[in-house]
Q: What sequence folds into this?
């Protein structure tokens, strides 16, 4: 099978950071994979790596100035912006993120960025303090909101002799994000996927609630992965501090009952539902109207069961693919298999939050994916985004063909 990068047009933007030297390797990888690479450098970028290096590797004239002296036609930025199938900014400095967020077009690269409709991938690289500065954080949130895809920096030795977050993702990793994008883009076009995420909060009184430790990360990664493949995604989220994924409709809820109402409302037109939320099994029977005052005696709160959302969907499903999660601390696979059968699911993703590298708040997970035939697949430790891609791959394989079409 050929590379998904073959014959793709990649506009590679290089801004002024020391990681610019890695853009040379990245260009090499893109070229070896068969992509056509057109490099555009900011003036600061040219201080870190020469245009000659990039021109030699890309086999194309490097784009440098908005108003080149020897040009008579003034709309080159439009031609290049339309040529690109994807734009990659590597490295992306705090400065270029700020200019992108502000819609500023004061050099050729930022002018191209505001002219293109191609997907934009950015690989930030900077000192940890610059990365964590509220201005950079806000700029990244704005860009994510607009659909810019971040290839997050890693933690490690930085060129400024410190150790921290800010080290640009490795060229191989950047290339594989692009490969993934091109091999799956459009796969879920005209499909509607519901994803639930996060904890629920069940009120005890006006200031207190019963909750759980779910961060929402897994569901948010799933929503993004499905949206990146072209699905219309509705993310029904309990309280979570995760940034909102780009291109996803988000419905915010607090309680299990609100989550159930939102899921039920969306279910009929859906092709698949992934219940990654940690839904409360019990809620206080009668939440107090006023704050419960402190006493010296023990306090009893009566709890009643909530409805099982997934079980409800399982009993009314037609052709929808249903995916559940099972958090288990013992007999993980056995318990998950039982839940898959009882709730009439197509897949269940079992995990033990007690394992190092799995569970609440962690960036990684370790799971076992189980299907209706009882086939189990151990994922090993991987990022939540990578696990999301695996789950979406399985959903794609399970979706019945669209009526009037020959494939998923
Ligand atoms: N789930 C649900 N509604 C609930 C509880 C759970 O839809 N009220 C879903 C979860 O989102 C998850 C799956 O059911 O996808 C399994 O949840 P889990 O808490 O592991 O299992 P339970 O059925 O609640 O059983 P137990 O808590 O006894 O393990």
A:
């Amino acid at each position: 099978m050929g590379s998904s990068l073959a014959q793709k047009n990649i506009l590679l933007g290089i801004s002024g950071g020391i990681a610019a030297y890695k853009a040379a390797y990245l260009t090499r990888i893109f070229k070896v994979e068969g992509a056509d690479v057109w490099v555009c450098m900011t003036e600061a970028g040219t201080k870190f790596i020469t245009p000659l290096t990039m021109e030699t590797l890309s086999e194309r004239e490097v784009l440098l100035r908005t108003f080149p002296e020897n040009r008579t036609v003034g709309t080159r930025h439009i031609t290049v912006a339309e040529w690109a199938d994807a734009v990659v900014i590597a490295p992306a400095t705090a400065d270029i993120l700020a200019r992108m967020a502000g819609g500023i077009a004061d050099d050729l690269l930022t002018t191209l960025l505001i002219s293109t409709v191609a997907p934009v991938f950015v690989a930030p690289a900077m000192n940890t303090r610059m990365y964590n500065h509220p201005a950079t954080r806000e700029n990244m949130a704005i860009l994510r909101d607009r659909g810019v895809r971040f290839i997050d920096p890693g933690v490690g030795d930085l060129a400024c002799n410190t150790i921290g977050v800010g080290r640009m993702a490795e060229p191989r990793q950047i290339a594989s994000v692009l490969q993934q994008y091109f091999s799956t883009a459009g796969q879920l076009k005209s499909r509607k996927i519901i994803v639930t995420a996060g904890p629920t909060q069940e009120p005890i009184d006006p200031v207190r609630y019963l909750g759980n430790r779910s961060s929402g990360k897994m569901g948010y990664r799933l929503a993004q992965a499905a949206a990146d493949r072209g699905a219309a995604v509705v993310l029904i989220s309990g309280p979570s501090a995760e940034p909102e994924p780009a291109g996803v409709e988000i419905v915010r809820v607090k309680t299990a009952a609100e989550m159930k109402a939102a899921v039920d409302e969306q279910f009929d037109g859906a092709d698949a539902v992934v219940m990654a939320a940690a839904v409360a099994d019990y809620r206080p029977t009668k939440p107090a109207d006023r704050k419960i005052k402190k006493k010296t005696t023990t306090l009893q709160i009566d709890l009643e069961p909530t409805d099982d959302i997934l079980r409800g969907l399982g009993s009314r499903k037609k052709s929808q693919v249903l995916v559940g999660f099972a958090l288990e601390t013992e007999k993980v696979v056995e318990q998950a298999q039982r839940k898959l059968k009882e709730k009439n699911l197509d897949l269940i993703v079992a995990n033990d939050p007690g394992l190092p590298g799995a569970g609440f708040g962690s960036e990684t997970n370790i799971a076992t994916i189980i299907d209706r035939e009882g086939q189990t697949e151990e994922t090993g430790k991987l990022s939540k985004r990578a696990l999301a891609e695996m789950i979406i791959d399985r959903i794609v394989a399970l979706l019945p063909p669209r009526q009037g079409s020959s494939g998923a």
Summary: DSSP finds 14 helices and 19 strands in the chain.
